[in-house]
Structures are given as C-alpha cells and as structure tokens.
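Service request form, structural biology core

Requester: graduate student, group of Dr. S.
Request type: structure prediction, single chain
Budget code: on file
Notes: please return the result as structure tokens.

Sequence provided:
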Amino acid sequence: MKQCPFCKKELPDELEFCPYCMQKLNQVREFSSVSIKPKSSKKFLIAAFVSIIILITASVTIWYFSVSNKNLPSSDATASLTVSEQTDYSGYIGIWQSKDITTQNAEQQLEGGTTLEIITVKDSVIRFNLTKTSDYPNQRIAQLSNITAEIIDNVVSFSFSDDGWGNRGTGKLTFSKDEIYAEVTVLEENSTAQWNIAMTSYLTKREDTIQDMDMNYLLEDFNEIRDIFGEETASPQENMYDFSISHYFEELTVNVNQDNNRIMSFSVTYDPAGNKERYHFKGINGNSTLEDVIKIMGQPVLNTVNENGEIVYGIKNGFIKFYFDDNMNVTGFFAFISEA
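Core staff response, request fulfilled:
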C-alpha cells in the first residue's frame, strides 16, 4: 500500500492516480525531480557568476589596450615614416667601374670592362648609362643610354629593348655602401650580334673622373646635380648678355639659366699640369688630338680648324666646340644647347 501525497488516503501500489482526489500520482515524481534541482541550480548560478566576472575582466582589458594604443602609430603612419627615412642616393652620382678598368681616354678608348654612369638621382628615381666594353683591340661596346628607373629597397630593376647590338633583356643594380652590383641578362639575343651587354659585375666609384659630359647635363636642374662637380673654386658670376649665372669648378665652368635653374652650357679648359682625364666628351679628353676627335666625331662643320684653333660640330638645338693648341692637342671643349 501507498499513501496519496495529496489527500493522504491509502492506495494500492499499482495505482497511478488517486480515485479520491483525482490527482496523478506520477506528479510526485515530477514534483520530486523539480524539488531536488536547487542543488544543480546553485551550480548553474555559480558558473554564470564566474562567466560574468570573466566577461567583465575581458571587457576592461580590451578597453584598456584600446585606450593605450591611441598613442601608437597606425600601419599607415608606420609606412609613411619608412618612406620619409629613405636612403639618400644622391651620393651615388658619378662614374662606377669594374676593377679591370684602369684608364679612360680617346687614344686607347676604353679597356675591357663595365662602366656605370649615374647621371641624376631625384628622390628614389635614378637615370643612368651602362656600358660594357670588350678587351683591346676589338673594343666592341654595348651600351644602354638614359635608363630611368626607381630604387626600391636599394635595388633598381629595369628592362631594355636594344643594347646597341639588337639584344633585348632585363637588368638589376644593387646598391651597397661602397659598391654597386650590376647584373644584366639577355633574354632575346640577336643571332648576328657579335657582342652583348650581359654581365655580373661589382663596380666601385671612380673618384677622379666625372662621367662623360656627353650632353647628359645640359638642361638638367643645376641644384639636383651640382654636388658631382665638387667644390666651387670662385663665386658665381651673373652674365648680363644671356641672363645666365656661371659657376666655376676645377677646370670646368657651368652656365645656368637664371629663370629655371637649368644648365645652358658648360666649358672645360684643361690644366697642362692637371688631370686631363677628369672631364671628357665621348671619350675625348685632354690627352686627345685632332685626329682622335675626327675619328670619334666625324668631319666638323667647316672640315678644318678655324683661325681660333677650334672645330665645331652641330648637335640638336646646339653645338659642341673643341679647342686645340699649335700641336693639335685638345685643350678644352664647350657645349651649348637651346631649350627651344
């Protein structure tokens, strides 16, 4: 027998409801199961409380770091800082040669090797000529002229369609503290070419030589390249006849347009006791003769040396003039170009 939990009447064990109060006896089980849950509810409340504490702690931590990081640079700011601290590449302006080149003059032309002439550097944009010459006496020359490219992470990458022999390819210059590594690959070779500009060469700067004055400097902004000429030996002088300013360097005068600061002309006068290879034009320098000049430049405008000991060659929008002594040795030259 069992007792109804609702009306307290005695009932047989097999009954599932009370015939007196009509209550289902299994509600006792449901009620009992519910009534014993406070213990698990307590566990749930404790777990919920702990979760809330963890959530609050995490929120406070995130807020703290978000406030603290306001004073740190963003990724964009960091990039800007990196750009503003780029290496100053202007010190690389000049002539760089492989170690196997020891001299440069019109009589012997160029010894075999590689020559890199860095003409200008503005911000990270560089303009240069690259020449590779075969050994004497063949004197085959492959050359890339006026290549303009950007320096990225101390490396210049470029491509070319003709190296003077009809070869096409790509190249790379890698800048380090005291040398430049030149690597040039010919991708498409002219089947009839007898020479090419392919190379892997370490180059060092030739401090005693300004690169070939082969019209590279005319019309350039003087302030951007003035450092390559060295220290000025006298105060600049204003010229009223052509509204230019003359800047004087050792054996060199550079005339600059006052309006736009561009180089109008330059003249070289060799010191008989000085370095006659310091300045040259297409390989013509103070060791050259009239015969050398004609061999390189061809016949002059008047086909002869005039009464002032000069010969003149016309160039686009200008001219180049060479001076000679009584023995027909070159004593200097003058180059001019018009902006028109």
